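Appendix B. Chain record.
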Amino acid sequence: MLFDTHAHLNAIQYDEDLEEVIERAQLEKVTHIVVVGFDKETITRAMELTEKYDMIYAAVGWHPVDAVDMTDEDLLWIKDLASHPKVVAIGEMGLDYYWDKSPKEIQKEVFRKQIQLAKEVKLPIIIHNRDATEDVVEILREEGANEVGGIMHCFTGSLEIAKQCMDMNFYISFGGPVTFKNAKKPKEVAKEIPIERLLIETDCPYLTPHPFRGKRNEPSYVKYVAEQIAELREMDFEEIAQKTSDNAMKVFGITR
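C-alpha cells predicted for this chain:
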C-alpha cells in the first residue's frame, strides 16, 4: 500500500480527468490520499472530495502566500471543519519568503494563529516552508507545536534541521525533488533519518518526480518517491511503502 500524504486534487489541473487520475492511483496501490486545502476555494473543494471518495481525507488551513487574505471568519470556519471525521490535519500553514504577496509579519501572525487553533482542536499540522527555515523553526518552538506535532511537507532542508523538527514531534515528508539528480540534501536526509519519522507525498500537480519531471504530477507517481527512498536506504520497495503508510496512519489518526 502507498499513502500520498499531500496532494492537491482540488486544483483546476484535474477538472477534466479526476476519475482517471484516481483510478491510476488505485492501480498503483495508493490506498489513502490527503487532499490539502489552503484557501476558501481549495478547502471547499477538498471537503467535497472527501465526501465523494472513500480513500480521500482532507487537511484544511491557510497558505502563507495568501495570509494577507485570511479573516477571523475564515479561521472560525477552519475550526468548524476540524470536527469533520475526515479532516485529519490543519494546514498547510507556515512561511514563504520567496513570493512577496503577504508581508512577513502577517504571515507569522497567521501561522501562529493556526498553530494555536490546531492545539485547540487537537490535530497535527502540515508545514509549508520556503526560504524561511529559521523563522519557521523558531515559531514552532515558541508556540509549543510539539504538543500536536505534524509534518514538514516536501522537506528540502538539512539533516540538522530535520533533527530539530523531529525533536518537536514532526515527521519528515519527501516528494518528487528527492528523485532529482542534483537533490543532494533531500537524498541525504531521506537516507539518514529514522524510518519511523519518514513520509512520502506528491504535492501534485506540482514537483513531479523523475522520470516525468516537467509534466503534471498525480498520486500514482508517489511510487517513484518510494522507489528512490528504498534505493537510498538499501531497502525493499514494499517495506518503504508499508512503513511510510503506517507512519501516515499514525500521524493522521486514521485507523483503517
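Further analysis of this model is presented in Appendix C.
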